[in-house]
Structure formats: C-alpha cells, structure tokens
Design goal:
By secondary structure, this protein is mainly alpha-helical. It has helices at 2-20, 25-32, 41-63, 82-98, 102-107, 114-137.
Length: 159
C-alpha cells in the first residue's frame, strides 16, 4: 500500500512541476536571471509550495505519526557546517548551470534529453559519494519517533 501511495504522490508532484513550468530549463533560467529578462512567475510557485508544506506540517503535528506507519525522519541538527554549505552551493550551481533541480530533473527523465540524463547521472554519483564519505566518518541517519517531534518555539532547543 505504501508503494502505491508513494507512486501516486510522485506522479502528482511531477505533474505539478510540469504544470508550473519547473521542468522547462529555459523558464527556470529566466527566473534566475535577475539582472536580465527576469521571469518572476516561479516565485509564486515557490510561495505556493511553502504554503502547502506549512499546511502539511500542521497536519503532521496533529496526526502524531505517519498515516501509513513507521516514524517521521526529521533532521535534528540545527547547525551550519561545511558539508551543508558545500552541498547547498553545489546544488545551487547545478541549478543555475542546467536550469533544473533534482525533482524536475527526475520528472524530465521521460523526455530523454542527453543533458538531463547527464545531470541525473551526476546527481546520483554525488549521492553515492556522499553516502561513502558519511559512512566513513561514522555518521548515521536517525529516525525520530512521533512523540519526539517538536514544533513551534521549542523546536529550536537542542535535543
């Protein structure tokens, strides 16, 4: 059941990206061209995404746990370190050079564009390298039980 729900969510997400123009690299690059022919329309897409995400967090807070079982996997670290900043910079550079971020790149796989395939392959290599490096450093991901979730003012306290 969980796989079916995940597939449906992925299809809806991909359709939303396509409808919003996020799968069109030219539109994304026009949004990023703030000193040239800037197209601000994707700012509204991002604003809508933030609103939907906020509503999702509100529902999750009240639900107490995932509807399909298991536990929430929410990051607990609040600090900024070199790996976070470096990863964000790499993602931003890739986004600016190609006009796609990971979600739209995956949604574009069906188009068969060589540039998109190279981008996705590079992204997968980066993910694998990250896993190798963090495994060597002994870092592990931790699942968070629903009761341990904190929202609001006390979300900033160290855990």
């Amino acid at each position: 059941m969980g796989a079916v729900v995940s597939l449906v969510c992925g299809v809806v997400f991909g359709a939303g990206l396509a409808l919003a123009g996020m799968t069109n690299p030219a539109k994304v690059l026009a949004f990023l061209d703030v000193l040239g022919a800037w197209d601000p329309s994707l700012a509204f897409v991002m604003g809508g995404a933030v609103a939907v995400s906020a509503a999702g967090y509100a529902v999750a807070r009240r639900a107490g746990g995932p509807w399909l079982g298991g536990s929430f996997a929410i990051p607990t670290r609040r600090d900024l370190d070199a790996s976070l900043l470096g990863g964000a910079a790499l993602c931003g550079v890739g986004w600016c050079l190609v006009g796609l971020c990971p979600g739209p790149a995956l949604a574009n796989l069906g188009r068969g564009s060589v540039e998109n395939l190279v981008f996705v392959a590079s992204m997968l290599v980066g993910i694998l390298l990250y896993r190798v490096v963090t495994r060597e450093k002994g870092q592990v991901a931790v699942a968070v039980e629903p009761a341990a979730l904190r929202f609001g003012p006390d979300a900033r306290r160290d855990r």
